[in-house]
User: Fold this.
Amino acid sequence: MSSTDDKARGTGNNVAGNAKQVVGNVTGDKDMKAEGEAQETKGEAQKALGNAKDAVGNVAKKVGNAIKGSGS
Assistant:
């Protein structure tokens, strides 16, 4: 899965998790609220994974460019 996919899925889980928390709060459903909190946490982790993939890709590009530049 690409970093963009991870970030998009993470955002989706954040939105769904927040919605479940609101419903849980309004209805007094503690299980729904807890499920929403867990889903929001999952979304944050997915977005962090996407950001980490981007960072690794950026470092790899810089290393590649440095190697190309030193071969002159």
Helices lie at 3-27, 30-70. The chain has two helices and no strands. Residues 30-70 form the longest helix (41 residues).
